[in-house]
Design brief:
The protein is of the alpha+beta class. It has one domain (about 50-255). About 30% of the residues lie in helices and about 20% in strands. It has seven helices and nine strands. It has helices at about 5-25, 45-55, 55-70, 80, 195-200, 235-240, 245-255; strands spanning about 90, 95, 100-105, 110-120, 120-130, 135-145, 165, 170-175, 185-195. Strands 1, 2, 6, 7 and 9 form a five-stranded antiparallel beta sheet that branches. It has a four-stranded antiparallel beta sheet with strand order 3-4-5-8, with no helix packed on it. It is elongated, with a radius of gyration of 32 Å.
């Protein structure tokens, strides 16, 4: 086709198209139907989507990396490492400490010191040393030999009441001291955890981990860790009272899951073998 013929064809096509548009606009042709309305996303739908996303293993793995970077953890743990059984130990041997006494229990060295906190007032303080090269969650059940009536008058000592770094030493206040007072130790319990778990556990309110309120008010998480406002559901607290959920179960869960994003499921129990359950635990996303 010659250039002039092509130009004529284009002009003719444009004229036909223009006539068709004029006819549709002014000669009674039906309008083009409107677009269908955009799908509506409810708050419930958005929450369900977020929950499903939070339970994905790749999202959990990325969270481990992000949190490790935030807390300057040298080697971010893998899902496989966080799925291993964390070594747990219990010593139920009864001990009675007087001022200056020193004992070794599990991976801890415990000693009792008396400190002046005011004129004519002294208090008992338990010095706790992690002798191991691991991060250790701990629970030490104690009772002053003369009862706890005067313990509300003691001063709080800042310390990590949940977990200790390797070789770390902390002091926790126990009760007011008077001549002849002793400190009775009824049970010592430990769980060895990865480095990232040190930060996860430290963010928890100690009282929510079934630790005696008398000794946890001085709890301070490490620098850079914000406390969670986590509160265990009433159903879980009742199970704690009945002995169905244990301190070890709570520590085991929050060593694997940040309390910023996850909640403790009622049926969760500590891993007794590597890979006992899929991580993150289904149904635990906040």
């Amino acid at each position: 086709m010659s250039e002039s013929g092509f130009r004529s064809a284009v002009i003719a096509s444009a004229a036909v198209l223009g006539f068709a548009l004029f006819y549709l606009r002014f000669c009674g042709a039906e309008d083009v139907p409107p677009l269908p309305p955009a799908p509506q996303t409810t708050i419930a739908d958005a929450k369900q989507t977020a929950l499903k996303l939070g339970e994905r293993s790749d999202v959990y793995a990325q969270r481990l990396k992000d949190d490790s970077r935030r807390f300057d953890v040298r080697e971010p743990p893998t899902i496989e490492e966080m799925s291993r059984r964390f070594p747990h130990a219990v010593d139920r041997t009864a001990h009675v400490l007087k001022n200056g006494d020193d004992i070794s229990v599990l991976d801890l060295r415990l000693s009792l010191a008396v400190k002046e906190i005011g004129r004519r007032t002294r208090q008992m303080e338990l010095v706790i040393e992690n002798r191991s090269d691991s991060y250790v969650a701990y629970r030490i059940v104690t009772r002053p030999s003369k009862g706890t009536a005067s313990c509300s008058k003691k001063e709080f000592v800042r310390h990590n009441a949940i977990v200790l770094a390797p070789k770390q030493i902390v002091r926790r206040s126990e009760c007011i001291y008077r001549k002849g007072y002793r400190l009775e130790i009824g049970k010592v319990e430990t769980v060895m955890v990865p480095q990232l778990s040190y930060f996860y556990l430290s963010a928890m309110p100690p009282i929510e981990l079934a630790i005696d309120p008398r000794v946890v008010s001085g709890h301070r998480p490490p620098t850079g860790v914000s406390r969670c406002q986590a509160v265990l559901p009433a159903k879980v607290k009742r199970s704690l009272e009945r002995g169905e959920v244990l301190w070890r179960d709570l520590v085991d869960f929050f060593a694997r899951h940040t309390c910023e994003e996850y909640r403790f499921p009622h049926d969760y129990r500590a891993f007794d073998e590597d890979g006992a359950r899929k991580l993150p635990i289904p149904g635990s996303v906040l």
